[in-house]
Amino acid sequence: MKPQASPKITPPGAGREPELLALARSGDREAFATLYNEHAPEVSRYIRGRVRDMHLAEDLTSETFLRALRHISTFTWQGRDFGAWLVTIARNLIVDHFKTARARLEVVVAVTLDGDILVDSAEDEGLRELAAIEAADTLHTALLALTPDQYGAVQLRYLGELSLRETATAMHRSEGSIKQLTHRGLATMRRRLAVAA
Fold it and tell me: Taking Cα atoms as reference points, which of 75, 73, 97, 100 lies closest to residue 86?
């Protein structure tokens, strides 16, 4: 009987993600750790862009990956980015957090320049948070109007806070191409947002 050859490991940057996902789904913690290392910065930037409290952002980032680990068996590779699934989990956690904050009836106190104390009701605070969530949903809808390349460029450049050079490297394009994609993408988003207003 011939010994079986061990499975080939695809080198980094050559489509390893499906293989890592398969290993992680079978319980390989190192594969999941590799996925964590590759996607944690993106997820963290996404959350920090929506939550002002750094400690809360760190907690939500951790919880995103804990949920992903618990539900990794539900993720099936269909050529879609694993990072998009993680961002969806993060978005749901953020929405849940704000819903919970409203339910706790937190009261915000502000001091005017004259020294008067203004107390916002929990309802006012909840409405502000809801408006922020609706604004994020409107932005998401505007992003969906973009071509895949425009979406990638805008997401990495502005939501992911990457430099022009980093975005060009990540997308395997020239800096000029990224400038053009982001310019056209932002113009499309402005038109979409103007229609929604």
Answer: 75
Q: What is the 3-state secondary structure (H, E, C) of 74-102?
A: HCCCCCCCHHHHHHHHHHHHHHHHHHHHH
Q: Cβ atoms within 10 A of the Cβ of 88, count?
A: 11
> Six-digit token pair at 197?
């207003």
Q: DSSP states of 157-183 as a string?
A: IIIS---HHHHHHHHT--HHHHHHHHH
Both structure tokens of 33:
């750790």
Give the number of C-alpha atoms closer than 13 A to the C-alpha of residue 122, restricted to the C-beta side: 9
Q: Are 47 and 94 in contact (CB under 8 A)?
A: yes
SS3 content of the chain, % helix, strand, coil (to 5): 70, 5, 25
pLDDT in tens, 21-77: 888 888 888 988 999 999 999 999 988 888 877 888 899 999 999 999 888 888 776
Rounded (5°) CA angle 25-62-27: 15
Tokens of 135: 């604004």
Is 48 strand, coil or helix?
A: helix
- Collapsing DSSP states into helix, strand and coil, what is residue 29? helix
How many angstroms separate the CA atoms of 87 and 61, rounded? 10
- pTM score, whole prediction: 0.47
Residues paired with 55 in a beta bridge: none
Res 51: pLDDT: 81
User: What's the distance, CA 185 to chain centroid?
Assistant: 18
Beta bridge partners of 157: none
